[in-house]
């Protein structure tokens, strides 16, 4: 028995909405970054689901693996930036950072 495509779409949409709300409302850079990673996961769910259900070929899975590679490199750079800002400023709250302003 297979899980219907609609279930994957509902889960992906829910993740996308929750992550978008987190990006809009939060002020902590680390939380915003984690919400952005959840957005990537929602897109990955859509790629795999539509690839498996509509076409049957593994091109969606290929896009997801490539996206994960880019996401890992993005994570490494972002965490290094967070550690630098935390060391220099003492916090990573966007409302309290002054170096990011013009």
What brief labels describe this structure?
single chain; 102 residues; mainly alpha; 0% strand
Concise summary:
The protein has a domain at about 25-90. With about 100 residues, it is mainly alpha-helical. It has helices at about 5-25, 30-55, 60-90.
Elements, N to C (H/E): HHH
Largest sheet: none
Q: Using DSSP, what is the number of strands?
A: 0
Helix fraction by DSSP (H/I, runs of at least 4)? over 70%
Q: Give the termini separation.
A: 57 Å
Outline the low-pLDDT stretches.
none
Report the average pLDDT across residues: 86
The shape, in one word, is elongated
Tally of DSSP helical segments: 3
Please explain how this structure is put together.
The protein has 102 residues and is mainly α. The protein has a domain at 26-89. Helices cover 77% and strands 0% of the residues. It contains three helices and no strands. Helix 1 packs antiparallel against helix 2. The radius of gyration is 17 Å and the shape is elongated. It starts with a helix and ends in a 13-residue tail after the last helix.
Q: What secondary-structure arrangement, pairings included, does this model have?
A:
Layout: H1 5-25, H2 29-55, H3 59-89
Helix pairs in contact: 1-2, 2-3
């Amino acid at each position: 028995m297979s899980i219907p495509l609609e279930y994957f779409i509902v889960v992906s949409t829910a993740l996308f909405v929750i992550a978008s709300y987190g990006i809009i409302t939060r002020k902590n850079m680390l939380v915003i970054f984690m919400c952005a990673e959840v957005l990537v996961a929602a897109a990955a769910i859509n790629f795999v689901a539509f690839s498996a259900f509509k076409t049957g070929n593994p091109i969606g899975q290929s896009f997801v693996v490539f996206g994960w590679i880019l996401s890992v490199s993005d994570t490494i750079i972002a965490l290094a930036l967070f550690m630098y800002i935390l060391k220099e400023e003492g916090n990573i709250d966007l409302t309290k950072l002054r170096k990011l302003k013009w």
